[in-house]
């Protein structure tokens, strides 16, 4: 049974592909949460009146998160494909830019676990992907 489960995991060398799959899986759960409730979304955007974080905003955020999950899942299984690798890298850059701008430019969020988590994941992923580019994408 364990061999069957392991056969579904990415088969590339290194751990980056597995990381991509973990992040993609977490993003799917986050998307579902955003479709179902505003509770956790309001924890992220916690520096604005509660009524301004709407269901529409949460669903839009869910679609973005699901899109990034698909890109990162593809990257997990195609980590050596330059185009997919670059798309995954850019998806982390967009996430980092979004959460950083909400914290420091628009000030709709204050530092808390809900905001720190995607900042840490995107920063870690960006550094890891940048430093390991030649290992995974042999140009």
From TrEMBL:
What is the membrane topology here?
A: Multi-pass membrane protein
Q: What is its main location?
A: endoplasmic reticulum
Q: Name any one Pfam family assigned in the record.
A: Erg28
A GO biological process held by the record: sterol biosynthetic process
The alphabetical list of record keywords is: Endoplasmic reticulum, Lipid biosynthesis, Lipid metabolism, Membrane, Steroid biosynthesis, Steroid metabolism, Sterol biosynthesis, Sterol metabolism, Transmembrane, Transmembrane helix
User: One GO molecular-function annotation for this sequence?
Assistant: protein-macromolecule adaptor activity
Q: Where are the transmembrane segments?
A: 15-36, 83-106, 113-131
Record GO cellular component, one term = endoplasmic reticulum membrane
InterPro entries in alphabetical order: Erg28
UniProt xrefs under PANTHER family: ERGOSTEROL BIOSYNTHETIC PROTEIN 28 HOMOLOG, ERGOSTEROL BIOSYNTHETIC PROTEIN 28-RELATED
Q: What name is this protein filed under?
A: Erg28-like protein
- Source species, please? Pholiota conissans
